[in-house]
Write a structure and sequence with these properties.
Chain lengths: 100, 173
């Protein structure tokens, strides 16, 4: 009983702290360029340019696929670490996701 | 070498035409025609390069130009429709189109690496010319705030394309 309550407590605390963050892709930039989130948070990339972009982790941890204009892609950051990423369609576009 | 020089010369003539307009200042309707012409010329060049180049990187770059500039044109056309502006052809838009047609004609005589180099050299010159036109003529003269905002917003795409093209240009040296 005590154990169940404790697990329930941790679980509900985890939900309460989970946050959704937005990275705006506009004018050939990821904004914010560096985003720090907590493990378990969700990140949404929103493409506000007139053509497709993607968010592709250099180490392959995540890969959005092409995000159409006005489209978005959601990713839950379950793994801690630093994840530099880029748009493979536009080599000048770089960003970084830090999961603490 | 001569071909590359001629292609660059054509682009420079287009810039000269833009500078002439700068003295009087193009209207929003003329700016709209210039933007559509500039994008259309690069879309046509990209489609041609996609089908002709033997190099996968050049093909991918050309495909990106077609997709991105088509997106910009779609946005530009949607805005001019919303603003009830009818694009008005002018010396700059005509010069861009003529230069684009001349460039495609010259491309027909080139093959393989020679074509790839000429295409990428032209992309570098073209994007630089458009950035110069945006900075010196189009953005300063745009009267409508939404049109000005659109020009400002698409400028980074031309910068990124220029950097991409320059990077590819290095690989041909």
């Amino acid at each position: 009983m005590f154990a169940a309550l404790a697990i329930g407590g941790i679980s509900s605390e985890g939900r309460a702290e989970s946050t959704t963050h937005t990275v705006v892709i506009e004018a050939m930039q990821f904004t914010p360029q560096v985003l720090e989130v907590k493990q378990g948070d969700t990140v949404i990339w929103v493409n506000k340019d007139a053509f497709p972009h993607n968010a592709t982790a250099i180490n392959g941890s995540f890969r959005s696929g092409d995000i159409a204009p006005d489209g978005s892609w959601k990713f839950r950051a379950d793994k801690k670490g630093g994840f530099p990423y880029r748009c493979t369609l536009h080599p000048t576009m770089k960003g970084s996701l830090l999961v603490k | 070498m001569k071909t590359t020089f001629n292609l660059l010369l054509g682009t420079l003539l287009a810039i000269a035409a833009t500078s002439t307009l700068a003295q009087s200042g193009p209207t929003d309707a003329q700016i709209a025609a210039i933007v559509v012409a500039a994008n259309s010329v690069d879309i046509e060049a990209g489609k041609y390069a996609e089908s002709k180049s033997p190099n996968e990187d050049v093909k991918a770059f050309a495909e990106r130009m077609v997709v991105d500039h088509s997106g910009v044109n779609k946005q530009a056309v949607a805005l001019v429709n919303k603003l009830n502006v009818t694009p008005e052809e002018n010396d700059t838009s005509k010069s861009l189109k003529q230069n684009g047609a001349d460039t495609l004609a010259k491309f027909q005589n080139l093959n393989g690496k020679e074509f790839d180099k000429a295409y990428i050299d032209n992309e570098v010159a073209y994007h630089q010319a458009v950035i110069d036109a945006l900075d010196n003529t189009l953005i300063p003269n745009a009267k409508n705030e939404e049109l000005k905002a659109l020009l400002v917003k698409v400028r980074p795409a031309f910068i990124a394309h220029l950097e991409h093209a320059k990077h590819m240009q290095m690989s041909f040296k």
